[in-house]
Structures are given as C-alpha cells and as structure tokens.
Amino acid sequence: MKLRARNGIDLEKKGREVARLRSETIRRDFEVVDMDYETAIKSAELRSMYQIPMADSVMAVKAQIHGCPVVSDDSHFQKIEDLKTRWYSTP
After folding, report:
1. Where is 62: in which H helix or E strand?
2. Burial class (CB in 10 A: 0-12, 13-18, 19+), 83
3. Same domain, 63 and 78
4. Is residue 53 helix, strand or coil?
5. CA end-to-end span of the chain
6. 42: Cβ contacts below 8 Å, ≥ 6 apart
7. Average pLDDT of the segment spanning 15-31
8. In this structure, are 55 and 82 located in the same domain?
9. What span, in angstroms and rounded, lies between the C-alpha atoms of 73 and 65?
10. What is the structure's pLDDT at 10?
11. What is the predicted pLDDT for the residue at 58?
12. Same domain, yes or no, for 12 and 53?
C-alpha cells in the first residue's frame, strides 16, 4: 500500500527524508509545546463534546491555553466555543 500526504508526496518513496524535513521545519518555524495532563483531560472533553479527531482536539486545547488561533481548513474547529480560528486554503 502506498501512502500519500495531502500534498501528493509519495511517502513510501520519500518517507524518512520527508518526515525529517517536515519535523525540522516545524521545529524552526513553530514553537513546539509539550503534552501534559491538563491538555489530555481537556482534549478528551472536546473530543466527546464535538466528536472531533484526537489530534484536532489536542491542537484546539493547546491553542486555547496559549491564546492563539488554530489555522486550518477544517470547518469543525469553528464550532468549538472560545477557540480562535483562521481559515487556511491552498492557492
């Protein structure tokens, strides 16, 4: 089975190198924050309340804790109370 990222990169051929480059970009361009107990509990509550994926609930909670917006093209973020969102679309 071949895995494809949203941008169409064939991860089977470029998996390790692509993953390394992406993690370096994230580390360079973003502040990486730790997962903690408070986030885990609040994330579980959001998942239950809004029926959203775990990764999205973690991002939403971290954004709320840090007072920053979630930049996404997933409309389910917009229904979460007290969450700032910015719509992202690819050109």
Report:
1. helix 54-66
2. middle
3. yes
4. coil
5. 29
6. 61, 64, 65
7. 81
8. yes
9. 21
10. 53
11. 94
12. no
